[in-house]
């Protein structure tokens, strides 16, 4: 295997961007690494590292200037997220939140608003997205922060909490209630009393104390209080009452960025674990040659490949389809965070006590990987989305007019995010079973995984009654949604790499796991097992085992 | 497109977006009963644009009063007529 990261090896796009390259170089600089470690040890905001990245041109990547359009694409945003997450969770979310907070500006701002916001960002302002309140996280419809009309503008009152950048951000993209919610509502009612404002920190706005967080200890996770703060009408994004839909559109894209954070973390776990396993000697040989360690090594490699592949696929879909990628970003956000957490756990099993030493890098990784799963919607929010998508997919209507949209998306040239983000589109929802079947023409494990996918869709169809949910127990539906996301990871890897030992092992090993999980779910439902499921599970396990030795041979010797 | 054709198409799209059997969606069926909510509603509006060529303002004040499939089809028919189709 080469010295490239997994992302770079798998990505169909070779980003030849001076800022992305410069950031990668900077993050490899020992002095930058030392500064980041020191900030995390002291739990202080990494201001100097951010300033250095700003000097390298990161702000100009995202924020336009006159005669210098923002060239950031989803590929840039994802690559930066993967790079920074490899280096430091604190840095990753501190930088990454700017991408998140600027998305509503790309989506809904007027030209004049963009000019104002981008000027702020280019002059050094950090941006934050203020949605969450202490009592209202996942249920944005219940937020209490209120913006009342006052003269030509508004006055904001309320408190936002657990905000990434609550202290440090000068630009606060804030969701507030502008209506009183008394209009008649029905099932088609999109909350029309929530509005989004791009606010410069100023009068009536105060920062609340930073939280001490287990992951990302140097990040600024704090709150913001609005005390009748004056906000000009010019700060309103997209019009009054449009806040809910702008936020939904934002998250449909930003979740792809979170998947890239997870991919960076998993790659770092893989690199550290594999390097340690090769170097550490026991009983006269490297521990990588000991069978139990070899198992963990193969596992962390497989998980890293699956995680990166799915995050890359999500980035490609956002790049090609904007909001039409909502299904893929939800699947990627769920599965990549789970895959990364497991990759870190597998790495920890290899490093043993050394994984727990605070002065060594792995401890920080163990700590930080926990964070990504709660950004931009918790696991359960993602499962809720995937549950709905699975029900639709099982109905058999392929959303893609032209079959599998992935190959075309992977081949699409990078598109400017300022243009792509606002592309309204229904979520593309190609059948996972059909996709795996096609991929199975060149990847035997994908062919077997297609049988698992067919079984999954068949179970959903068979169980469905005449009501809205295919099973009354949300926990069972969420188990099925997890399996769907796992199968998406297998399909993503097969699309990007079906030949390497790592890819062949990952597909077989993980595919066998998904088959086992489906069988367990079927048994819990008391349903008839799908035809061929047990055989598919056996074949997948065999295919994984067949690639294992070749993979371990590579892992034991690669430096 | 006739009124009956719009009603039939609306039933199909509601079934599709909500992941339920098309046969389960009745002309006077309650939308809430099929699992329609604000997130699915946004998807449904995009479906109307794509499939019926009817653009829906998600903040149209009439939307709050719509509770059944037939009411939805009648609303779309009105919007289509206003757009001059």
Textual characterization of the structure:
With 559 residues, chain A is α+β, with helices and mostly antiparallel strands. Chain A has 20 helices and ten strands. Chain A has a four-stranded mixed beta sheet. In chain A, strands 2-3-7-6 form a four-stranded antiparallel beta sheet, covered by helices on one side. In chain A, α9 (243-279) runs parallel beside α11, α17 runs antiparallel to α18 (474-496) and α18 (474-496) runs antiparallel to α19. Chain B is mainly α and 85 residues long. In chain B, 53% of the residues lie in helices and 0% in strands. Chain B has three helices and no strands. Chain B has helices spanning 3-18, 38-52, 69-82. In chain B, α1 packs across α3. Chain B is globular. The chains are: A alpha+beta (559), B mainly alpha (85). At the A-B interface, α9 and α13 of A face α1 and α2 of B.
Essential attributes:
heterodimer, A: 559 residues, alpha+beta, four-stranded mixed sheet, four-stranded antiparallel sheet, 20 helices, 10 strands, globular, B: 85 residues, mainly alpha
